[in-house]
Amino acid sequence: MLAGESKRSPGQLARWALRLQEYDVDVVFKSGRRHQYADCLSRNQLPKIEEEISEDIPFLNTITNCKEEQSKDPKVADIQEEMGRRRDSRKLKELNGILYRKNYDPLGKQWLLFIPKHLREGILKSLHDAPTAGHLGFAKTKDRIRRKLFLSGLYRSVLRYVSHCWECQKRKSPPQRPPGLLRPILPAEIPFAKIGIDLLGRFPLTTQGNRWIIVCTDYLSRFTVTKALKSGEAVEITKFLVEDVILKHGSPREIISDRGRSFLSNLVKEETTGFSPFFLVHGHDVDTSLDAILPFLPDESAHDYVQNLVTKAEETRQLAKIHLTKAQDKDKSRYDERHGTVSYKEGDLVWIFTPIPKNVSGLRTKTVEFYSSVAFVEYDVICVTKTWLCEVIDSRHLFDDRYLVYRKDRGSSSNSGRRGGGVLVAIKKCLSSRKLDVPGLDLEAIWISVK
């Protein structure tokens, strides 16, 4: 086909036709719609994958030469020389020049191989870090070793190794009390001087077109004002504050809002203050329909009633403040028993906790690296103008028992001083209990803003 039209064909088609003349083939047109499977000619050549040499091979070679490796340990040599004179000779056994220790656990072997000190790190790596080991916790790793081998100081060695495991730190929560102590909000001197406001919803649409409920609570009396809203936007919230709070109870001095989940309890307990919210705000208990039916017998004049009402209201408010402070101290003491303090200094190395997005489907949390970011406390807390230079991190998401690597790569110094804006911190920490031995030591620093 191409040969017959070679005079009118472009040069490229002509060259193709000349090359195809030596073959007895039929050129058939096939539309792109019919090309459902890619053939080998459309694939780029894959790069050659070089097989990595397993790091466990040298260790396996050394563990098989037990007699030679035990002779390198002075402690093992001393035990072999004093086999008959030691008190624990019945617990030891030497066979073919190899030292064994008796095992009293019925689930393990009867005689355990005595591991020299210089092979302890390799044993822990093989029974904890290997793909077949599974990075188990302290108790399971200790039991696995205890039933197979004998290591002097097994408890401390396993605890130290597992607590500093690189992969475990990135995927498991730290074995410590949650950081952060409770900081109660101090009550105000008068009702509605300090209020909390929050939005509840989104609820099913009502007959009047409302989907949200706004809640306003006084921090002294616990008196609550609520209202149904249609959209929960700023215009409706402002109208609620003016009409239902300020015009009825006065202008508040402080307004507290978390702009997130509701921090109000489902049941507001009056035992916190000792009085009902209505009594603390109005100075008397609420009158019900039964009170309106019962005969009223005044026992004092109107002037004396007003004076006593004002005095009683002020006394109850002060007493309620005392009760509220005691309740907060009790809650703080109970809360702080399960939490600890967290402080970060210059030179501290920490991990940064990265929460998993809720909208990610099919994600297996068992293999997720929760603590994937790293930073070193290299500078004191300073203020910066350009907040985009740093990533805002909650201080509760920093853990000082984690370690990682750092390389200074920012043009800032510890004498930068205050310049307004956010709070900029460079994080770094090095654990003194173990030498830092991690590949890839050229990571950049992560600058974070601690709230």
UniProtKB/TrEMBL annotation:
EC number assigned by the record: 2.7.7.49
InterPro entries according to UniProt: Endo/exonu/phosph_ase_sf, Integrase_cat-core, Integrase_H2C2, Retrovirus_Pol_polyprotein, RNaseH-like_sf, RNaseH_sf
Organism listed in the record: Araneus ventricosus (Orbweaver spider)
One example GO MF annotation: nucleic acid binding
Top enzyme class: transferase
Domain Integrase catalytic: 187-283
GO biological process, one term: DNA integration
Gene name for this UniProt entry: Tf2-8_39
UniProt protein name: RNA-directed DNA polymerase
